[in-house]
Amino acid sequence: MDDDKILARGGDETDISNYSKQNGADLTEGDVWNDVKRMSKIKRAKNEESSLKILDEKGIGYTILNLECRHYRVCSFDFWPSTGKFYNQKTGEKGRGVFNLIKLL
Question: Whole-prediction pTM value?
Answer without folding.
Answer: 0.68
